[in-house]
Every structure is written in structure tokens, then in C-alpha cells.
Batch of 2 targets.
Target 1
Amino acid sequence: MRAARRGDKDAAAELFRRHWATAWRAALGITGRRALADDVAADAFERAFAHLDGFDERRPFAPWLHRIVANRALDVLRAERRLSGDELPELPAPADLGSGDRGLLAAVSSLPLDRRVAVVLRYGVGMTPQEIARTLDVPVGTVNSRLARALEQLREVFDAG
Amino acid sequence: MPADLFERFPEPEPRVEEQALARALAALPAGAPPRLGRLRAPALAVAAAVALLLVAAGALAAAGALHVTVGRRSTASTTLRLALPGGARGIAVVVEGRLWLTTRSGLRIEGLPVSTAALSPHALYVAAGLGDSLVAMAPDGRRAWSRPAGGAVTEIAWAPSGLRLAYVVRAGGGFALHEIEGNGARDELLDASVRSVRPSWRADSLAVAYVGGGGAPVVYDLAHRSRRALGVSGATALAFAPRGRALAVATPDGVSVGQAVVRLPRVAGLAWSGDELAVTTGDAVRLFRPRGARLVPRGTTAAPRIAGLTAGSRVTVRDVR
């Protein structure tokens, strides 16, 4: 981290590779679309690296990066919704998702956005409810409530399937 | 719910990873201030487009009524398109596939991935290519419309009346030109084989010029549903004058307006500023006034003096000389 902050590209590249896949999957989980995930994850890294010099290296990098990913994904989705109304499909097309468990992906993508973000950050990124609350700027109770409802909804989906 | 949800998620594509890595590394804080020579190439790449905007938006800038913020830092060679609608009440710019837009009425869009975008006259609407759809919204939040385009929309041009749009969409291995009403109704195919060059509307909104599949400019007359190809090949940009019927055509060798031709290398774009034609080349913006069969030079603005570099979240206008 220290070398990357000094502009060492090899160190920065190693930092990138260590966190890229998780960041991209978080973006995919929130946006539900590969193209947006590509864009959001790349943008998050770009923003993170552009501000490395101001990053407190005593703190872990991953939560900071994932916070940027989540907020960037939400910004993009909100802007897209403003631009397109409700007419664009929110669910990903199975072909768009490529490999992986499509049923699980489709189920996660079917969640309302606030619950989806909570699920991705909790069960994908591995954040605690407290960390998610800080990331989303909502009370911890709200996060727990969203997670509980999301799990209930997912259970219904899988039970029905 | 699995303990590790992501184990069952797909993998990102390696190509995407490499591109993202390159972008991220380019964004690293520099250990030492970059040399001017390294900045000059990307600066020049965006200079022409920014210069065009500044030429066209002079009055607006002087009024100070519009604050422009564009994008994130970009050190890579950048394709920059600035679209300034009639009335100059807003600015839309697509930088590396992202839309940044601001209007006087308060609409702001920051970093939305789009294929292209255009503000309507007086910035009443913005139309954009989003996925395989053409979408539009009003700045006051009125409901947007969205229409499947059948492919990625690559170019959009609003008629000066604001009642119609022409757009170019990727179709099969090529591109097609459509016309649609400003409310999203009555989509019509005008030409199934065109080049991906932004169409230009005549001032009376009754004709639209585009570049046909063979590279020749074509004027499509909407009143008579007829088309007329001009005797120019390899057109790279088109611009109808804001008054009258003069059509400026850029080719790799220069610019023509009717019979008047000026040979210029590296023409990057065209825009009219009143009666003057602004032509961006690699290092300058040249102004011409059509007079009969001549294009009379009206001066040159050295583009590097007004190069726009995206830095942080703002456009930086600086002198790179």
C-alpha cells in the first residue's frame, strides 16, 4: 500500500489484482449487468487510485474500495433510472451473466435495490452490518431489517423454484 | 444464502480487467509533476472539441450563467464530443462513453454510461443511447420515454425545431439512420446504410444531412421524402448553417460549403458560430465566412491555449504552451 501510494505501479497493480474480482462481483451483484459492472468496478478503482495519496494506510483498503464500488453502482443506477424512467428492465438477461449460478444471480437481482446492496455487501463482500450501515449511511437496524427481508424473499424464490 | 455469495458469481473478463488496470494505474498520483510533453498529446486530442464549444458558447460563458463540471481525471487519449444546443442553455459531453450534462434549469447527469447523447434545442430534453435503447428525459423530471433501437445508438441529432430527432444505430455489420418524433413516437427508417457520423439538420428542420454508406453526404428532404447525394467523397463531419441552407462538409482533405473549398489537413470537426464556420484541426480552430464561392479566413484560435483537461471533477482550461 505504501509503495502504491508513492506511485509505484507494480505495487499498485498488485493491489488492483488482489481486489479486482471481488470489486467487480460486488458491482455485478448490485447492478445485475456485466456491462455496468465492468464500468462501475473500473471507475471505482480509478477513483480509489486517484485518491490513494489521501488514504489512511493504517486502515484496510478493501472496505474503502467496496464503499466506492457500492456508491458508484448506486449512482449509476439512479442516474439511469432518472434517464429511462421505469421502462428499462432491471433484471439481467441470463445470457448477459455468462458463467456462474444463474439462478442465484437472478434471485439476487430480483431483490429491491436497497436489499440487494445489503445482501451483496454482507454475503459477497463480507462486510459486517455495522460496516454496511456506515457505507450506506443508514442505521444498523435498517441494514439488519433489509437483510432479513432479503433472505426471506430469497427463501421464497428458491422454495417456489 | 451461501456464506460466500461471490463463489457462485461469474468471473470478470480478463480483457476488462486489463483495461481497468490501465485506467487505475493512469489515475495514480504522480510521484513527480508530469512533464508538459506528456500532457500535450491528450491535451491536443481534446483541445479541438473544447475549443469548438468555447467558440459556440462564448456568449454563455461571458454571462457566467452555466457552471461546467466534466468528468474524472483522464490521462489517456480521449475522444471528446461536446454538444451545444441552440439557445445554449446547457452542455452535454460524452467522454469515454460517459455522459456529463448540466443545464441552466438544473438537470445534472454525471458519468452515466451512454453510447452517445444530445441535448434538444434550449436543453429541454436530453436524448441518449443507453444499451440498445434510445431514451429521453425532461429536466424537470417529466416522464422519460424509451424506445428499443435494435442496436447501439451511435449518433443523435435534434432538429432545430425540437420536434424530431435523427439518430444513427448500429445495425448488423453497419449503421442505419432513423428519424423519430421528439416524444418518441413514429420511428422511421430513413436509410439502411449510412456511416456513423452525426447527422445535421437544416435550419428549417425539413431536411437532414448524413453520410451515406459510400461516404458521400446525403440530404434527405423530409417534406418530399427524397434524398440527394452530394458530389463529395469520404465525408467525416457535416454541419448545416444555423440560417439558410448552407451545408459544410469536412473530408480528410479539407472543408467545403457549396462550391467553396478550403484545403486543410486533419479536420477534426465543424461548428457554426453565427455566420462563421469554425473548423477544428489538430492544433487550432480556424474561422471562415462563406462568401460566394470562397471561404474567407476570419482568423485562427490556437487551440492549445484553450485545451481542456479533465482533472478531478472539473474541466481545467489551461494554456499548454
Note: Chain A touches chain B through 60 residues (CB under 8 Å).
Target 2
Amino acid sequence: MTVLTIVLVIMVVAALWASMTTLLLRATIGLALSSAMLAVAMYSLGAQLAAIFELSVCAGLISVVFVSVISLTQRRPFKDIVKYRRERLTRFWPLPVVLLIVGIGLSFVHVPVQIALPLPGGDGDVRSVMWNLRQLDMFGQILILLAGVFGVLVLFKREDKNAR
Amino acid sequence: MLADIPHTLWFYFIFFVLLMIDGLWCMLATYNLLRMLIGLEILMKSVTFFLIVAGYLSGRMALAQAMVITVIVIEVVIVVIAAGLILGFFRKTDTLNVRATRDLRG
């Protein structure tokens, strides 16, 4: 068993924990752990720049956004959480079983994969690909970021009750 | 190297499928809007992972990284906008339950 296999298993287990745990704060921590493990897997596969993006943005920034929203919305008393936990368990207990069966089943089944891959070879530096080959993507990213900024300004603004 | 590719692809494909099922289940089996967003995040992670695997196996890692960075930027904007929408919904209805959206006008 290689280190990459262990990292991928932790990634799936963390994602499973994120979807099964009752408390949303724990789910956010599970999601961040899953992102961090994905970043490690990316780094070991040779995608260093994408791994840094994944770690800083997905494990960092998105977790902060989730924690902020949870702190602004959660007002449930502990008694309700215990009741809610039982109700959730009935919907989520098959998930680990399904994942185990699918994982074990797929590792034993061998489907012949007929794919025509190009010969491995360098395709240049990621920066030159981003700035020279995928210029339209960069333009789209800038537009989407601007749309996101305007969206945040509109959606996170508190309503003024005396406006009317 | 090339002979190993189908086996390696199958190995990574298993983890891709597991993450995909996890994300889909998380989105479908819950009534909480924030948890649905977490499910969407897990789905996006599986896609990101498979893009990197495709780049690794085809030897075009620079192109795959450029794609993944684009995906991550769009993912962040989606999460922030969705979080704002959820917050607005909570301020109006005082709940995160998706069944409360039935009361919306329109």
C-alpha cells in the first residue's frame, strides 16, 4: 500500500464523515480535511500549482465561508440535535455500506479499458498554458470573480428596516 | 508505462466513483441547504481529482492544472454566492429546511 493510497482513503473517509456527521461545523472540518488530502494527492501526482490552489482556497477560504454562514444561522438547542441525529441516521446509515460494497466490488471487477492516450510528454509550463493557450478561460475567470464580488455585496448586505 | 495506464486509471476511478456517490447521497438525502452545498463541494472535489488524474495519465499536466485552477475559481464563487442566498433565505424564513422553499412566491 503506497502513501498515495492511504491519502486517497483518508480523503474518501473525511468526505464520508462530512456528509454523515450531525453538526455542520464538524462537516466543514471533514470537508477541509478532504480538501487537504486531495491537495496532497495532487502534489504527489505532479500538480504542484493546483495543489497549492486547492489547499489555500478550498481547504482555507471555503471553510471560512462555511463557518461564517454556520455561525450566522445555527440556533438549534441541544435537545433538538439529539432528536435530529436519530432521524438523520435512518437516512444516512446505508451510505458507508454502499461505499464499501462499491469500493470492494470495483476493486475486484476488471473492466478492460480501451482508451487512446497520447504519448506522455511535456506540454510546457502551467503559467504559459494559462496565459497563452487558455486566455479565454482567464477572461472568464475575471468576469466570474467580478460577478462573485457584486453577488457578495448584494447578498450579504443587511436589510435596512427603516428604509421604507 | 503505457501498458500500466488502464490499471492505474481503474485504481483512481474507484476513488472518483466513491467521492461521487458520497457527494450525490449528501445532496439527495438531506433537507438542509448548507449540507446540500457541502455535497456539491464533495462532487466538485471528485471532478477536480479526476481532471488531475487525466492530466497525469496523458502527460498533459500543465493543461490539467490550468483547468483545475479554473474549476477552483468558479467553485469559490459558486460557494460564496450560494452561501449568500442561503443566508438571505434564513433571514426571511428562519430555517434552512429546503421544504420551506415551497412557500416562496414565483
Note: The two ends of chain B are 57 Å apart (CA to CA).
